[in-house]
Structures are given as C-alpha cells and as structure tokens.
Amino acid sequence: MKSTRGSFFGLCGALVCLTMLVTSCGNDDGVGANAASSTPTSVAEPTTTTVPATTTTIKIYASTAFDQTDVLLAERVKSAGLSGGMVRIGRADGSLIHEKSIGSVNGATPLSVASSTKWLTAATFMTFVDQGAIGLDDNIAKWLPEFANDSPPVTARQLLSHTSGVRDNSCQSGGMSLNACVKAIASSARQFPAGSKFSYGNSDFLVVGRLVEVLGGSDFATIVSQRITGPLQMNATTWPGAPVMANTAFGVRVTVDDYGKFLQMILNRGMANGARILSVDAIDALVSNQVSAYDTTKDFSVGITKIPRYGLGSWPDVVNEFGATVVVSGNGGMGLYPWVDFATKTWGIIGVQDERGAQVAVPASQKVEVEARNAVSR
Length: 378
Known about the structure:
The two termini are 38 Å apart. This protein has 11 helices and 10 strands. Helix content is 31%, strand content 12%. Helix 3 packs parallel to helix 6 (203-216) and helix 3 (117-131) runs antiparallel to helix 9. By secondary structure, it is an alpha+beta fold. Strands 2-1-10-9-8-7 form a 6-stranded antiparallel beta sheet, with helices on both faces. The protein has a single domain (6-377), classed as Beta-lactamase (3-Layer(aba) Sandwich).
C-alpha cells in the first residue's frame, strides 16, 4: 500500500502548538439511503492524515468539567424515550477521562449500531491491503467475477468511499445469504458509472464484506474475529445472521466496552495490546477524506451528518487548514456516535440505540458528542 505519511509531515509545525491531551448512518439505515448523489468537481488525491509524534502532558479536569455533557446526554435519552444511554471518553492508554451511564445502558449493554458497522468492516478489509492480497484501486472483478462486466471497473476504494455506483438492493434487509445478495447487487443496474459520483449507501459494504470472505477463505464473522475483534478482545461483538447472513453494512451488535477498544487502536495508529493490528498507512487511509474530488453537499446522508467528507467507512468530522483529519467518527443511524480526536489524543462514544430514524438519531447524538469534545479541549 502506498505510503501517505510524507504529505502530512508539513503539518507538524501547525499541530505542535496544540496542547496534546492524554486524559482520563443501518437497519436499512436512513443514513445509508441512496437518496441523492454528488458529482466530482475536480480530480484530487485523497487527503491524508498522519499524526506527528509529540510530547504529551496529562490534563487534570475539574469535577464539573463534563456536567454539560451529562445534562445533554440525559436530555437526549429522555427526548427520544430511550431506556438509557452512555457517554465514555478515554485516553490513548485506555484509561478513562469521563463516563456517565443513564438508565439501562452501561458499558456491557449490547447495542445494534447501524452504520457504525462500516468502520469495522473497512478495518477488516484493510488487513488484506496490508498483506498485499488486494489493492484499494484494484478491479474487484478479479475476486468477484460477477462484476466483470462493469465498465469502468469497480474498485475497493470506490466501494469503501461510496463512489462505486453500486445501488442499494432490497436483499440488504435480510433473507438472503451475503454471497447471494452480492450476486443480486452485481446483476442490478448501477446508479452511476464507477468513480463519477458520491452517494452514501449500504450495498457497497455488503460487497466489501463478500470480498473479505473470498480473500479470507471463510465467513465474514470468523474473519473479522480473527483479524480485528479477536486481537482487540472485543469478545461481546456479534454478527446476527452469521455465518452466512452477516450484514457487513449495518448489522453488528457491539458494546461501548468493545467499540472503545477499537477506537483506542485507531487513536494509537494501528497498535493494540502490544501488537500491530493495522499499518499506519491503513489507519491514514481509513480516516482521511477520500472524496475531496466530489461535491457531496447534496447527498442525503451528508445532509444528516453535516459532514461533507468521507473516509473509508468513517466520517472525517473535523479537518485542519491543510485538509488533514483531526476528528473522525463512525456515526450510525441508530445514534451510536464513536469518535477519535487526534488533536487531544482522546476517543469517545455516545452509546444509545435510537430507532426513530437517522434523520433525528444522528444529530441528537452529535450534539452531545460535540459538547463532550469541547469539554475535553477547554
């Protein structure tokens, strides 16, 4: 995989002035609807992100530092009529800055998290890129011959960044194996020629999941356990419908405890438990804006998140003046809002399961997330 680090080193001077703090879109996801698309405005390379090494200091927070975060979380749970919710904010070393649990939701509560699934699926796929088994810009027809008639060819990067033209298919709602569903997707019409537009959807990630199965020679749930959730000790993470019907776009069930381990690995740029899970280049690709060549502003899901950028399975929420990702999230249509803040060296999760629809669930959690990040920075 081509290194992306060099283009970011010029940012060191700008970022070193920041005090680095180490402190304690699914179920036919509304955010995953192919309701609108966006056309490219220019030819551009994906914006890359590499966080420079820097001296860190421990920040001590006042006992009232996260009071407003907790108030907003309580309001968010009450207004949605939820049984509970949780906020957790952690350091790069895994220790906690702050957490608050309301009602029946705690760190061990299984949650259906809609499109927060996509970040895990993308990370699993990137383990094969790290191995050299496939390239992000390879024609997927080499592994999935049902896509052999696509012209221009569909690439893995396009699938992971919603620029493939693959249209959402009713089979994504269940009742069909992942293999059969992907064959149905391949035989259906494209929304647009591959690489010509951006349109957030779900079926792209079902194709990615099937690619993982072919590359790994097993079912998706087994492979993700071998390569990501197992090494991260995400022991409560499950894939309903596995082994043959795992939904790799919006079907995972996770806990706050488990997803926090994944975020810590992203923050630590691929390292966890003394082992390398993903390369630095893979992390850079996952979190960096891949769609800078497109006008995404009219996309349905961008209208919900208000984030006009997309990485590989994740949303670059905040970028700096150079376009490099500072905050990245894997928000999903049931309101789970996991994020990594590279500036403050922290990660966090708003943990809820809100089934009112992405249009309300995502902004409601985003409001709490923004306040939580601001509290860390103050």
